[in-house]
Structure formats: C-alpha cells, structure tokens
Amino acid sequence: MSVYLHDIPLSQAQARLREALQDAGLWRTLGVEEIPLDENALGRVTAEPIWAEISSPHYHASAMDGFAVKAEDTNGAQPSSPIQLIVLRDQLPVQAQYVDTGDPLPEWANAVIPIENVESLDENGKISSIVRGPSSIRIRAAVAPWSHVRPLGEDIVATQLVLPAGHILKPVDLGAIAASGHQSIRVARKPKIAILPTGTELVPIGSKLKAGDILEYNSLVLAAQVKQMGGEPTRFPIIKDDFDLICKRVLEAAQTHDLILLNAGSSAGAEDFSAKVVEKLGTLLVHGVAVRPGHPVILGMVHRELGIGTLVETKSQFTNLPIPIIGVPGYPVSAALTVDIFVEPILAKWLGRRPLELPTETAILTRKLVSPAGDDDFVRVVVGRVEDKLLAAPLSRGAGVITSLVQADGLALIPSGTQGMEAGEKIQVRLYRNRNEIEKTILAIGSHDLTLDLIAQFLAEHDRRLASANVGSQGGLVALRRGEAHLAGSHLLDPSDGSYNISYIRQYMPDIPVKVVALVGRDQGLIVKKGNPKGIKSLGDLAGTGRAGSVKFINRQRGAGTRVLLDYHLNLMTIQAESIAGYSQEEYTHLGVATAVASGRADCGLGIAAAAQALDLDFIPLFQERYDLVIPKQFADDNLLAPLFDLLADLRFREAVSHLKGYDVSVMGALILED
Amino acid sequence: MSVYLHDIPLSQAQARLREALQDAGLWRTLGVEEIPLDENALGRVTAEPIWAEISSPHYHASAMDGFAVKAEDTNGAQPSSPIQLIVLRDQLPVQAQYVDTGDPLPEWANAVIPIENVESLDENGKISSIVRGPSSIRIRAAVAPWSHVRPLGEDIVATQLVLPAGHILKPVDLGAIAASGHQSIRVARKPKIAILPTGTELVPIGSKLKAGDILEYNSLVLAAQVKQMGGEPTRFPIIKDDFDLICKRVLEAAQTHDLILLNAGSSAGAEDFSAKVVEKLGTLLVHGVAVRPGHPVILGMVHRELGIGTLVETKSQFTNLPIPIIGVPGYPVSAALTVDIFVEPILAKWLGRRPLELPTETAILTRKLVSPAGDDDFVRVVVGRVEDKLLAAPLSRGAGVITSLVQADGLALIPSGTQGMEAGEKIQVRLYRNRNEIEKTILAIGSHDLTLDLIAQFLAEHDRRLASANVGSQGGLVALRRGEAHLAGSHLLDPSDGSYNISYIRQYMPDIPVKVVALVGRDQGLIVKKGNPKGIKSLGDLAGTGRAGSVKFINRQRGAGTRVLLDYHLNLMTIQAESIAGYSQEEYTHLGVATAVASGRADCGLGIAAAAQALDLDFIPLFQERYDLVIPKQFADDNLLAPLFDLLADLRFREAVSHLKGYDVSVMGALILED
Q1: Which residues does chain A have within 8 Å of residue B601's beta carbon, measured at their own beta carbons?
Q2: Other CB atoms closer than 10 Å to residue A558's CB: what's the count?
Q3: Where are the alpha helices (DSSP H) in A308-420?
Q4: Do residue A453 and residue B176 have CB atoms under 8 angstroms apart?
Q5: Cβ contacts of B456 on chain A, cutoff 8 Å
Q6: Out of A298, B243, B578, B580, which residue is the most buried by the measure of CB atoms under 10 Å away?
C-alpha cells in the first residue's frame, strides 16, 4: 500500500497535464456552437472572428431632425444676413428637405441643419409654425460639409473585424454584432464537466446529521465555479467508497463529458480509491502537488471505454480518446482552489478565451506566516487600507474552513522556496474585490463578538464594509499600535480593579491617542445541560461545598479572558480553585466548553450565552463584561468611520443587538475614554 | 409644440427619480423569493442575513487518517524513547483508536496522530502492516491537545452570521450556506424590466435593409445589460410611431413589470412621442439631462391603470401604484449609458445590493477634448501604460458609434463645469478591464489599417492585447514623440522622392531613436462600379483625353495621404488636375469615395481595395503604398512587444494577411530603419 503520496511542484504538475492534453489533441478549443443573437449570448466566447456583413449606418443618415442642404448653399449666412433656402416644391430647384433623425440624406445634399437653427417660412416669406413642409427656410449660420450627418460606415464598415475570436461577449458587443448584419453567433461549445462526489460518510445537503456524517456540498461549489468559468457542470449523486462502483460511474460520466472531477478519495488512506481508479481506467499523471491547501491532487487521463483492445470495429475512434480526470481533495478550501488552479486554465483553453485573472496588489502582511518551503502556499486574507498602507490580514488557514474563502478579500501567495513571511513584509495579493470597495473597508482586528456581524450587516447599507480578523483583544491593541487596523474590539478585565481595557490600552499603545466607546455589555455565565439537571445557580455551586452536590466543571485555558474573569470572581468570593472538580480540565474556546457539557464530559463551564445557544444548552448568566471599541483618534475623526458612529446611535441597530441572547445595549455608545 | 427639451443636471435628475420612487414606496427591495440551494443561485442577492442552523463540523472530527489518542498519554515520547499505546481490545483500557479523516473523535480522546507517524505492532509487539486494527501502536513524538482535530464549529458555529443580506452569491458562499444547514436560500426577487422599442423606421435584426431602415438592436443591448445587473428583461416587439399604440403597449407592460424602458422617441421631434406618453399615463419628472452622450433622457412614473379614479373597488391597491418609466435615447451609446446611469442604481436598490462600481484610475489624456460646460460628458477611451504613464486615448465620441463602447477599455468623465480638457491633463477613468490586462496592452496610435485587426486577433493568443486609436499617420508620429504610444502605423509618402515615412519621422520625432519595420504593401487603386462599365484602366483615363470618354472622378480632401499619392502620380504622368472632371469634388474617407461611386455621383475615385469590397464595387489596383510600423527603440527591445515581432515572422499570420484583398505580405518584417 502506498501510504505516502509524492508532491511535485505546481508548475511541473500543470505541465504534465498540459502535455497529456496536447498528446490527446485536447489542448485546443473543443468545438463551435451556433446560437441565436439574443441576451443569452452574454458571457459566451466567440469561436471565430466576427466580420461585418454590412456597414452601419448603411447609408448617409441624418443625425438630427432638421433640413438636408448642400453645405455650399449656406456659405455666407450670418445672423445679420440670413440666407433663404427653398424647400422641395413642384418645379422649383431643391435647396432644403426636411429629414428626421436617421432618415437617408437626399443624394444631392451633404449636410443637415438642425431644426432648432432654422426659421420656417410660408409661401409669403412669413415665419410659420409648419415644421416639415414650409415653403422655404431661413438660416443665419453656414454649415460645414457633413455636419449632422452620420456617414455610411461611421460605426461599422462592411468586411471589417467587429470582434476577435476568443472574446467574452458583453452587452454592447451583442449590439455591434447585430449592427454588422448577423442574427446568430458562432461561440465555443461549453465544456461539459462531470462532478462525482465520493465518500461513504457523505450525506446530501439538508440531511439530518449524526456524528461522522459529512454534508456533501463540494459538488455544489465546484459546479458553481465551473458555471462561472463558462463550463456546463453535471452533479452526480454521492458514490459510496467502493472501488468497482466508482470505476463504473467514472466510465459512465466519461461517455458524455469532457472532464471529470472526482471529489475526495484523493489522499492516500485506506478508503482513498481515486488514484487506483485513475490507474485502472487510464493513466495517473500526478498524485500530490506541492500546493497548500490542496496537495493531495490527482491528475490523470481516463479512456472512455474500459479495455480498449476489445472494442468492436463499429465504435468510432473518438470514443477511444482519453479525457482528463482530476482527483479533487475533500477539504472544501482545497477543492475550490484546485478548480481555480487546474480546471480554470483548461476551461480557458477549451473556450479559447484568456485565462481569468484577478488584479494583483502588493500589501503588507499583518502577522507572521509559517509555510513549508517546498509548497506554493495560498493564504486567504482580509484587505484594507489604513492610512497609506494596504494591509493583508490572514484568515484561518484550515483547509476545512470554507468561511475563510467566503470572508476573504483576496488570496496571498507564499511562493515555494520561502519558509514563511514575517509580519510587515510585502506580499502579493490577488484581489477578489476592486480597489473602490477596499477603500471603503473598515478594518477591525481584535476580539470577535457577534455584534460585529450585525455592524457589518448595517454598515453595508451605508456604503461601508467591515472586515474583521480575530486575534483576541490583546492582539487587536498590538495591531492598532502597528497601524494595522482602524479599530479593535476589546474586553480585557483588569483584575486589580475590575475595570475594562483602559489599563491594557495604556500598556500596549502608550503613545497613541485613542477614543474608546462602549459597544455592549455581554453576559458571561455557566453553560449547563438543557433543563439544568444539577440545579446549578452560581460559582458557589462548583466548590465541593456547593448545594448542587458533585459538579464537574470544564475550564478555559490559562490566559483566556474568560479564565481571567473566573479567577477574578473566585477571588472575590474567596473560593479556592482546588475545591472545584475539573478546574484543571481546559478547553480552548467557548464552544469547546459547551461541547464538553453537551457530551456529558462536564456538568458546566463558564462562557458566553451564544455558545450555549449554539449547542442548544441552558445558560445561567452570572456576570456582565463590557466589550468596547478602541479607535485611534486619527481614525475616529475620519469620514470612513463616520457611519459607524452614526450606527451606535441608531435605534434600529440597538434593537437588533438587543435581540441577541445575553447582550445589554444600555451602554452602547458611551464614551469610555478620549485622549 | 415644445421643440426644445430642457436639460437639468445629472444629480438633480437622479434625485427627482429617487424621490418619486420613495413617494411610491419603491425605493426598497421589491420582494423575496425562496430558491433551492444549487448552482443556479450563483449571482443572486441574499434577501436576509443567513444565520447558521448547525455547526460545521458538528462534532470534533479527525483531520487526518490516524489514531485518536489522549495527548497526555503521549507526553515524553521521543525518537529514542518511544511510547507504546494499546489499541482498543476486549477488556484492556483504551489508549488509541483508528480514525479516518472526518471520523468523530472518540469521547475520551483529544488528539489524533497521523498514520504516517505511527508504527503498528502485532500482539507480539512486532511491527506489522495492519493499518486499522493493530494490537498497539508505537509513537516517537508527543502531540499537543487538539492536534489534527477539527473541533466542533471550527468553520461555522450554529447561530453565527454566515452571510449578510444584500450579498451577491459566489460559488464558495453556496458551500458555506450548505455547511450551515440550509437547503434553500431567500434571495431578492429579480426586478422585471420591460423593454419597448419604438420607431417606424426600425426593423428587426436580420432584416434585409433599404435606405432609411434602422436595425433594432438597442433592445438586445438593454436586455443584456439588465440581465447582467441581475434583472429579468422582457423584449417587446417593435412599436410603430403611433401615440395611441405606444400608450396601449406601455399600459400592457406596466401590468406585469417593475420598470419600463421606452426606447427612442425621447427627443423633441415631430415623431417623438415618449414624453407625451409619460405625461398622459402618469407624471413626467425629467425631460432632458445634462449628460453626454444621452441627454434626451425621459424620467417619469406611469400608473398601472389609465384613469385611476374610475377603478372599481375590487381591484387591489397595488395596481394603482405608479411604476417608473425611462425614455431611453435612440442612439446606441446613449441608450447603453442611460441604463448604466439611471437603471443600475434602481436595480441595486431593488435587489438590495451595492451599486456596481468600476475601479477608477487616473490617466493622462492623449488629446484635447472639447465639451459643453454644463454637461457631464462621458468619453470612451482606450487605456494603456507607456513607460510609467497610464494613458487614455479617446475613441469616437459619436453617440451612434457602438463600436466605441465595444473597443473601450474605460469611460472617462469630463465633469460639468469644465469646457473640456487639454492633451496631457489628468482624467479619471472608470476601467472596464483590470490592471493586469492593461499592463499587457500594446498601444498603437496612428493610421488605421485592416491588418491591425489581424494583429490584435493573433496577439490575443500570446497574452497581449493591441489597442488602437486612429489619428492618422502624422498624428501617430506626434503621439510617439509625446511618449503616448508604443508604436504607430504610418504610410506617409514623401512626394519629393517617393519614399515612405522616414523623412516624416525625422521631422516629427527628430530626437527619438526608432526602429521601423515594414508591415504590408497595400494597393491603392480606382474604385469603380461593379463590372467597370466605363472600362477605366488607369489615371490616364480620368483626363479629358483618356479613351474611357467622359469620366466623373471623386477626390479625397486636401492633405489626405491618398490625395498626396494621387497628386504624386499625376505629376509623374504629367496629367493636369484641371483636366479631370470632379477633381475638386472632395470626400473625407475611403468609404465616402466608394459611396459616391456606388450612388452614381461619380464613376471612380482613388482608394483602397477594402473600401470597394465593403460596398461590393470593383477595384483596379494602380499603386502599392507601404504601411510601416514605427517603434521607438526603447519599446522595440521591451518584452511587451516581443510577441509582435514574433508575429511578423509567423507564417500563419502572413497567410491570414495575404487573404485580405489588396495586400502584399512580401515586405512583411523588412527592417526599414534602425537608429
């Protein structure tokens, strides 16, 4: 059993796949489809250059409502010495003729005088209100030849190139194609991509879950990516981890598709069949690419029929051509990036368009990143501008954290050959958003709180975006000192006097004038089982002496704000830590504490109401801690943050926050400190 | 009759429409639609915040294939002093248990050791190949708690905000929504937009055209724009210029749509009924906006029923609500910009999303632009970077020239209050392309030639873009002198010696080292009627003495390259200009000459083969002129232009050019001059 897969460099992997496609005659556009020229052509790719069949306009056209004239006849006309031109009449010579915008210019004319520059005269030479058929007109200015005329071919000349091949059709392109005499377009056929989710542990979206079940949503993301890139995805039903079954489905898919994405099973575990499937049905080109997230990628080619040698003569050659297959890793971030890295260039080639490119900017990294030297490492980042610096704050690097891609403003690359990057170093970021949006981004780094989600929601209505990176309260203050955020959310208790934040601000950012505004009061309390079977009421019940009898506690790790809060109150209540069963059992998050309670490992733990609510547990509020916004003065006065301060006084926002369980909005907006 | 419409400033017009929508209760999202969570949700806009129903993972999950352990049990393990852990067996205590990636962590465990870091042992303590069920495992390194574990809620915590309202759904968003326990999404209903083309002169796409017919393709462009912006367009059939009929159709459309776009008839001519229709059916808010192109815009509200007062009680209130109507100007560029300026903000509001914004950059204008002081004037520009300057070269400003929008890289604004801008001034450009593409743009300014279209086509395959602005040969040399282009196409004949370009290069850009390469030889000749009824063979036939008898010539304007060429050859042939009938009749373009011949105004004129071909005329080649590429040395050596030089040696390209009528590729790539 080959437990270890061998990672090869990204560029090498891409080259192997490209060569295999070239050998199979598949490194080219796949085919042409003729479609009607309507709004559904939007986004399709021209398969051939489009040449004009006709000119536009196809005749010399009046560009205004007015009178067609010979420019020569108007020479010398002045305000003080007007010229009179005879309008078409039986026997008289023609000097002017009424034309609407778009009308053909009479053959004898070479200019148009707009109607508003003309006096209409009746047969007696008196000014008349007749528009179209006066006896004559009087003009008080000469016109140059071709004035107010759209000459034949002004827009498009028959035979000219209207659009090149490989062009992605925009709305105005459709108009130009129509104007040049076409009523259908030849576009690249959409590549058909089969997406096969495999895994015995997978269950469809919407299933009722038990431990070990994994919701199968990768195929949804992959299909949407393929669709966005111009392909035509087909999502297959979930396939169990069964080698023969997977082979069967892959062969089925190969009959009617151009590319197969075999999701998961691409690693090297006992139930990872993808590599063996590709080996059996064709050629395994690559197993493992030095790229993170995403390294257990499989690249290969499979034949449309198993056992080609036995094919009967009647089958066309075409069915024997191999088609590419990509084993896509199971973690959602790896899966999505695999499509970006390996599938997009193939679709670009098959559609004959340019590869999609994100705009790239240089940003400053806000914290140190470690990375394996051999890997191209893609890091999701939040991007914002603080003063004149464009900053990139890394989000979670976990390959399983799809929300990191949802929240990302861009993708930063730590190229292979580097072992990571220091905070403050310059890093290249491919931006998912345009610069205008980033200029309107308020960068919040610090402790996370649910109300930040609501702030983000409300600010969006006021042309601002809140991007948060969670590094804890102290990390937020450090970020402010370094000029890497506009504000930090903080709830740091000073155990010496029970105050919040101020002493820490003085310690961490001594020379920076700040404005500190209270955001919310937040309940901390005991998370207990539904119905509180042990009847726990207070910290006193945790000690061996408490009336709740034997209570198993679960603690937070040393240094956590909640641990500081617990110790502070135990001290006030003169309860000895040693008297609490489970005091030394540590969890690292609010939710970890709640999970320990839910699973029965503990009877209670200290945390926030939201964690209890998330796992449908009960919550006994004990203390309120204050969560403040710490804002350097220079940003507090900046127009960028103005909508945020408006929000703190907005009753609708206040009400929304008050609906969150365990939140108190009475302090909202209170000025805690202003330097 | 109100011939003159009154232009009001853009911001005022937008405000009036917004107020009317507010009054009608329509300045808000239109409604909610619940759709399945599949790839068709891509691009839809969330109508409400999406909160997580479940956590992801919803249990502590192994992040690797390996063995679940208690981290405490591994303390002290070293390469030299391994620790042995017992794998689950009947009566023995549990110390390690095999888990696949994604399996739930056993309740007693708090870490996972990846399988590749484990030695499997059989019941005798010997190393074994059993993967899942060895008797025990040996490890040589300790693991920290929660190593290789994805804790419950690592990605998503139940109750958290997954996505805010007003968010445009991307592929990864769909995954996050699925992961948080949803199987459908509530999105903003798509606004329904009726597009009504009006005009007796309009004919549908694909019609056989006669003079005065105008192809109706605005409704196609408008529909595609609306679709791209997230609306649902309906294209109505063409309506003749008939007031009652237009009223009838508008009322019909109003029953089932949220917004009506009434195309053309928005000016103030005799057949421009749009304003009167809006006045009759509702309220005319604005007629005329100080914006170019596009000023005859109409904004109004129409009622869903005519004569509200008479409505019977049973009809719902809703039918009485007015809906907005926009009279869209008839010229295609005006029409498209009207949708961008007035319709996009309404759709953004109705969908609850941010308005679409193009990235804005500051560029340097390459030529002077005159603009009415009162107007916001939008100018289509080609954008490229030459050395460190981002340049904006204006394209045709004609409102009828839709190809100017097709070719544009961006839209530059000359704001109201300025009467224009000088060449070299800084101008704000909203970019249609991202900077990466612009960095790969070769900017060609000079004389236009058909082969430039082919160069553009071929360069696209080599990751370069050719953007051309046509200012004539001399204009191109001036642009090179100013550092505003990478190359110029030029075919300037020196009548003193019959040479091309060099003397002009020395005159116009004396101090700039250049490389001049021949592109093509191009036939100039006589454009004659199909079948050449007058039997014209040479310039000699034009003079009164020629054997073709009485021939009417049509000339180009003084200064045109073709006129220089004519005079040069008349001089060589000692033919007097006065002896040529029509010598003093001037046209301004090759196509103008061809049109004069086609219409019978003249028997022949001098021009290029393409112009004859465009109007299906005959062509008698007489002379060959050389069309060169003039390239400053510094760019000739730049990597940006390398693919262009490759192209000149590319047989496939050479063959494509040789298929153009009247082109000679034998000179292609010849070095004419190198400083």
Answers
A1: 107
A2: 9
A3: 332-338, 344-351, 402-407
A4: no
A5: 161, 164
A6: A298
Q: Is A57 helix (H, G, I), strand (E, B) or coil?
A: coil
DSSP string, A558-581: TT-HHHHHHHHHHHHTT--GGGBT
pLDDT digits (tens, 9 = 90+) for B486-513: 999 999 999 898 899 999 999 999 999 9
In terms of Cβ atoms closer than 10 Å to its own Cβ (0-12, 13-18, 19+), residue B6 is exposed
Task: Report whether B606 contacts B526 (CB < 8 A).
Answer: yes
Take residue B438 and report the two structure tokens written for it.
């612009």
Cβ neighbours of A76 (radius 10 Å) = 9
In the block, residue with structure tokens 């001399």: B474
CB within 8 Å: A405 and B172:
yes
Asked if the Cβ–Cβ distance from B460 to A354 is below 8 Å, we say: yes
Distinct helix (H) and strand (E) counts, chain A: 18, 40
A residues 212-241 lying closer than 8 A (beta carbon) to B: 212, 214-215, 217-218, 220-225, 227-228, 233, 235
Please give the structure tokens belonging to residue B83: 């620790």
Percent of chain B with pLDDT over 90: 66
pLDDT digits (tens, 9 = 90+) for B513-526: 999 999 999 999 99
Q: How far is CA B137 from the centre of its chain?
A: 62
CB A282 within 8 A of CB A300: yes
Q: Which of B220, B586, B588 sits opposite A37 (nearest CB)?
A: B220
Distance, in Å, from the CA atom of B670 to the CA atom of B227, rounded to the nearest integer, reads 49
**DSSP β-ladder status, A298-303 and A322-328:** antiparallel
Q: B39 and A358 in contact by Cβ < 8 A?
A: no
pLDDT confidence tier of residue A315, bands split at 50, 70 and 90: very low
Dihedral sign of CA atoms B603, B607, B611, B613 in order? positive
Instruction: Give the ipTM.
Output: 0.90
Residue A477: strand, helix, or coil: helix
Across the range B338-351, mean pLDDT stands at 96
Radius of gyration of chain A (CA): 36
State pLDDT tens for residues A527-545: 999 999 999 999 999 886 5
Give me the percent of chain B exceeding a pLDDT of 70.
Answer: 95
Task: Write the single-letter amino acid at B572.
Answer: L
Starting from the edge strand earliest in sequence, which strands make up the sheet with B111-114, in order?
Answer: B96-99, B66-69, B111-114
Chain A touched by B453 (CB under 8 Å): yes
Nearest to B165 among A267, A457, A592 (CB): A457
Q: Do B270 and A100 touch (CB under 8 A)?
A: yes
The C-alpha angle A646, A647, A651, rounded to 5 degrees, equals: 110
> CB–CB of A611/A449 below 8 Å?
no
What angle in degrees, to the nearest 10, is found between the helix axes of B274-281 and B243-256?
Answer: 60
Q: Touching check for A340 and chain B: CB below 8 Å?
A: no
* pTM listed for this prediction: 0.90
Decide if A294 contacts A222 (C-beta within 8 A). Answer: no
Q: Model confidence over B612-640: pLDDT tens digits?
A: 988 889 999 999 999 999 999 999 999 99
Kindly report the nearest CA distance between residue B543 and chain A, in angstroms. Answer: 24
Q: Closest Cα partner for A188 from A344, A32, A49?
A: A32
Query: Which residues touch B310 (CB under 8 Å, ≥6 apart)?
Result: none
- Nearest neighbour of A217 by CB, restricted to B178, B457, B614: B178
**3-class secondary-structure state, position A38:** coil
Q: pLDDT digits over A436-490, tens only?
A: 889 999 999 888 888 898 898 889 888 899 988 877 888 899 999 999 999 999 9
Interface of B with A in 258-317 (CB under 8 A): 267, 269-271
- Match 């815009």 to its residue by tokens: B297
* Closest residue by Cα to residue A595 from A211, A57, A166, A107: A211
